[in-house]
Each structure stands twice: as structure tokens, then as C-alpha cells.
Amino acid sequence: MRIGIPKEIKPLEGRVALVPEAAGELVRAGSEVYLQTGAGEQSGYPDSAYSAHGIQILPDAATLYGHAQLIVKVKEPIAPEYDLLRPEHVLFSYLHLAAVPELARVLKQKGLTAVAFETVVVQGHLPLLAPMSEIAGRLAIQIGAHLLHAPQGGRGILLGGMPGTERGRVVVLGAGEAGGAAVAAAAALGAEVTVFARSRESLVRMRQLGPNVTALHSYQGAIAAAVQQADLLIGAVLIPGARAPHLVTRAMVRSMRPGSVILDISVDQGGCVETIRPTDYKNPTYVEEGVIHFGVTNMPGAVPRTATQALSGTIAPYVARLAQPGWEQDAALRAGINVQGGRIVHPAVAASLTGL
Questions:
Q1: Do 2-112+304-352 and 130-301 fold alike per CATH?
Q2: Domain spanning 2-112+304-352: CATH 3.30.310.50
């Protein structure tokens, strides 16, 4: 198998799909591995580190896509990369097609096979989504705490408070990997945290994170009341492969105090807040209804060294399997196929893109 690792081109995206050691294991297993020059530099991995493991360095994206059969990248292809895709490619990356119908249309037209990290399933879990979700959850609190500072336009709130002051109020929608990580980080800072989840198991797990955590069922009225009082609202709702439902309406956002902050991790899947829209790290925020919104779609890209190490170690065994004949017999990878032979084959993705 000829495996290509391109350089990510989303704004300020510094991750690379595989670290040199992981790519080297693929070479030792018999694959040819190509890296676009400079792809690992922002994660702290120069071309020379890859060359030392037998990876061939190619000068540009066109050359790499032309050589490779299996394309392993971090984020979904964006417009400048569309023309590089060919029918014989197997694309392995985050895709989030339910929120990007244009990309879904392109992948169908190309006739290639696209396997999405976020829909690979093992015993009901999403192992390739989990590490980036955890990073995004932790970052959500760090970023949100910063945006609440007055110089950033925020309310001037210290999330953990001080003796003689009120604690900051954090509301988290969802208690999965991202939501759970956000709750843990906010609780550790000393904030007053309210988390909404659907299952009692999740509520128990969240409540155990600290005495300053209140875990509630996701009733619309309860969400509306909590959002109104929130200094920082974190959206972390996930339905694998499908668009996130809008749990927070514009009217709820309007009820929040000026200078409050909304950070919607689920923006990759359309977002669970009606007023959220995708942004990037060049222009990460905007103000709507008096509330600061943060909608960056590649949050872990802010910590590329950490994120690359976490992601590479998680996806490497699946890349090795994709490089072998008969990989479609692997149940986890088969569940991850979103597009194949000119059709959207993942049921949840297809349902979200009705009419495409």
C-alpha cells in the first residue's frame, strides 16, 4: 500500500496524522509511506525525523496525492484539495459530512472511499474521536475562561472566584468525552458547574467529579433556566454521523447577560446552539445577542504537539489495517465508511444529507 500524509491547510492547523515512529512502523510492515514536506513541523517533527524512519518526503500536495492510494490526514479536505482527490483513493480522516454537504457532494462525485475517524465504532464507543474530544473539552474551559476576561470583551469573571466573591457559572450540554473533560476542568478551577445529560449513568459519573458539580436531566425548561444564568456555556452534544440538535435557541442566547461566552464544541456537526457558526483560529469569535461566540472547528489544532501524539497513537493500528487486503471485513472500519462508490453509505450521514 502507498500511504500519503499531506500537510494540513486549514487556518492555523498544526497537527499531522502520524508521528515519525508510527509512520516508520508502516514502512517496516511493507508499505510505502510519503510525507508532504513540512507536514510535521508545527507539531515539532521535522522532515528529517521522518526520513530517518524510511518515509519518503515529497515536495507538494499534488505529488503526494498522485503517488498515494491511502490518504491519511487529520481534518477533512477543503476546497483547494478537492481537485487532488481521485477515485482510487481511500481517504481516512475526520470528515463531519453532516455539516459539510459540499464536501459530501465532492466525495460522491469522485467515487472514492472515505472512512471517517468519528464514525469508526468499537463496542459502541468512538475510539478515534475520543482523544480529540477530550482535548477539545479541556481547551473549552481554558479558552472560555480567557474570553471572560474584560480585555476580551467578557464579563470580567474569574471562573473559580475568590473568597468574598461569587464563583463563575459554567453550563455544559453533554457528558461524553468532550463534555466530561470540560466539566472536570471547570470543576477543578472551582467554578459552579451544571451539566446536562440523558442517562442516569452519565449524571452519576458527572456528579462524582466534585461537590461543585450539579448534574441534571436534559429537560428544555431546565436548560433554559441554566443558560440564562451562565457565564460560560459549553456545547458538547454528539449524535455519531448526524447533525447536532439545537438544544439552545436564539431566545435562550438573548436571555444571557452581555459579555457571557458560548463555546460550541459540536460546531463540527452543525452545533447545538442556534446562533453558532463555524469559525477558525484566525477569527475565532464573534458577538451575537451581546454574547461572545467561539466556533472554531479544529480546536485541538491549538495544541498540535499534544494533539498529534494523542491522535497518531490512536489511529496507527487502524491505518495498518487499512493497508492490508480485505480491510472492509474489519467491523470497526466498515462502520466508519461514509462514502463509497459514489454513494453516501453511512445511515446517519445519509439521513442528515437528505436530497443530496
A1: yes
A2: no
* pTM exceeds 0.85, yes or no: yes
60 is catalytic: no
Q: Which residues pair with 187 in a beta bridge?
A: none
CA 43 – CA 29 distance, rounded (Å): 25
Fold of 130-301: Rossmann fold (3.40.50)
Q: What are phi and psi of 102, to 5 degrees?
A: -60, -45
Catalytic residue among 96, 231, 293, 346: 96
What are the DSSP E strand ranges found in the chain? 2-5, 32-36, 56-58, 70-72, 90-93, 113-116, 169-173, 192-197, 213-217, 232-235, 261-264, 285-288, 291-294, 337-340, 343-344
Distance CA 307, CA 206 (A): 24
CB neighbour list of residue 282: distance below 8 Å, 6 or more residues apart: 11, 12
Catalytic annotation present for 268 = yes
Catalytic residue among 264, 268, 293, 346: 268
Sheet with 343-344: list strands edge to edge: 56-58, 32-36, 2-5, 70-72, 90-93, 113-116, 337-340, 343-344
Model confidence over 267-322: pLDDT tens digits? Answer: 999 999 999 999 999 999 999 999 999 999 999 999 999 999 999 999 999 999 99
**Phi and psi, residue 245, nearest 5°:** -75, 150
Q: Where are the domains of the chain?
A: 2-112+304-352, 130-301
